[in-house]
Structure formats: structure tokens, C-alpha cells
Write a structure and sequence with these properties.
Blueprint (H helix, E strand, L loop, with lengths): L4 H50 L1 H4 L33 H4 E3 L13 E5 L2 E4 L3 E2 L17 E2 L3 H10 L4 H5 L3 H27 L4 H37 L15
């Protein structure tokens, strides 16, 4: 079979045009892929720049100088420099601040107190400054060496047991004893009076004397318990406003 030369030429032309079309299509797709890659890269750079602006410390690492270690004798000043809230003219200032000392972690340590500066120790809640005049200074190495009595405990004891228990708790022994005596005397007088009436012989004169004794005893008991009630009411008010101090003159821990 004889092949027509024009047919062969047409076939070759079609192959050439098809390869040209395929190569142009491939180059077009490659160009689109490259453009998409460049666009994604540009977006990523913009995101990184935005994050760098929001957190400059994270984007630009900085070298911080090595922290200098403070010796154990130095005072922890900075975390507690704002707790000096009591006026120095306040009469209770001396119980909460120890001044004119070389304040350090050895003589002003948590939980007793903290140094507000190099020469002042501030007592934390529940602790106060107290130095017994009869004891040497070496017995109290801590600036805030005295644990306070609680106002709430003293108030509740005196409220529910108004016979001096709150005073005893606060170390006010004399006041507690006086209140107990005022409570016990009428009871003792009542017992002695009844025993005397029962033991005494009966008669006209004796019965009049016994009646007078009973009247005097009743007035004494009534007056004693009225005084005890008034005293208890005053104690509740004074404990409530934290006017009382403990037996050593140190204020009670507020509520």
C-alpha cells in the first residue's frame, strides 16, 4: 500500500502542534503554582511581622544579665515595700514595726515579719513586737517575736461566758479574777445567809432580824448581778471595738 506524502506531513504537523500545546499548558500550570507559592510565602511573612509587633520580646531575643544572688543576710524589700500602711504617729505603730535595726532574713523572717527597708521590719498578721523589760534582748532574736491573741476569740468567750473568761484568754488575769469574785460573792452570801437562818433559833426578835438579813442579802445580790451585767455589756462593746489590749499591753489581732 502506497502512503501519501501529504498524509505523513499532516500527521507530523499534528504531533508537533500537540507537543507545543502540551508544553505551553505545562508551563502555564508551573507558572500558576509558582505564583501561588510566592503568595503563600508573602502571607506567612506578613503574619510573622504582625506577631513580632505584638510581642517584641518573643520576636527579638534579648540577653538578660545574670541575676545576682543576694546573701542570706539581705532584706526582701521589693515584694513588701507597699505594706507600711500604719501611720507612725499611731500609738500601736511600735507593736507592728521594729525600726532602727539591720533588717535581714535572720531577724525578720516570714511568717513573723518582712523587711520593708534595710532598717525596718513589718510584723505580719498575728505577730507583734514585744520585749519584756525583765528579759535580756538575746531571748528574742526575732523582731516580731510575740504572737497576738485574737479579738474574735476574746469577744466570743466574753459574750457567751460573761464571767471573765475572755479576760483570762487575753492575759488580763486581774480583770478576770475581779469578775469571778463579783459573780461568786452573791452566791456565797446567799448560801451563808440561808445556813444562818436555818441554824438560828426561832423567836419574835430573831425572826425580825432574819427578815432584815434576808432583805439586805437580796439587795446585795441584786446589786452585784446588776453590776456584773453592766460590766459584761461594757466588756462586749470594748472587745467588739478592739479597745482592750492583752495582759502585756499588746493589741489583740483584729477579728
Amino acid at each position: 500500500m502506497k502512503t501519501n506524502p501529504n498524509t505523513i506531513a499532516l500527521f507530523i504537523s499534528l504531533l508537533i502542534f500537540s507537543s507545543i500545546d502540551l508544553s505551553s499548558c505545562a508551563s502555564k500550570k508551573a507558572a500558576e503554582f509558582h505564583a501561588a507559592f510566592l503568595e503563600t510565602k508573602s502571607k506567612a511573612k506578613n503574619v510573622l511581622k504582625a506577631e513580632a509587633k505584638q510581642s517584641p520580646n518573643a520576636a527579638t531575643p534579648t540577653t538578660t544579665p545574670a541575676a545576682t544572688t543576694t546573701p542570706s543576710s539581705s532584706a526582701p524589700i521589693s515584694p513588701y515595700s507597699n505594706i507600711n500602711t500604719i501611720n507612725p504617729t499611731d500609738p500601736n505603730y511600735q507593736y507592728y514595726f521594729k525600726t532602727n535595726i539591720a533588717c535581714s532574713n535572720t531577724n525578720c523572717m516570714i511568717p513573723n515579719g518582712v523587711c520593708v527597708d534595710n532598717s525596718t521590719c513589718k510584723c505580719l498578721d498575728g505577730w507583734a513586737v514585744f520585749q519584756d523589760a525583765n528579759s535580756p534582748q538575746t531571748m528574742y532574736p526575732q523582731a516580731c517575736n510575740y504572737q497576738q491573741k485574737r479579738q474574735l476569740v476574746a469577744f466570743l468567750l466574753e459574750f457567751f461566758f460573761p464571767c471573765g473568761i475572755g479576760h483570762f484568754y487575753a492575759g488580763r488575769v486581774l480583770m478576770g479574777v475581779m469578775k469571778l469574785i463579783l459573780l461568786a460573792l452573791p452566791i456565797l452570801a446567799l448560801c451563808l445567809g440561808f445556813c444562818g437562818i436555818i441554824a438560828s433559833p426561832h423567836g419574835e426578835g430573831k425572826s425580825d432580824a432574819s427578815g432584815a438579813c434576808v432583805l439586805i442579802m437580796a439587795i446585795f445580790i441584786y446589786g452585784s448581778y446588776c453590776a456584773l451585767g453592766i460590766w459584761g455589756f461594757v466588756d462586749i462593746i470594748l472587745f467588739g471595738i478592739n479597745s482592750y489590749k492583752d495582759g502585756n499591753g499588746v493589741p489583740l489581732l483584729h477579728w
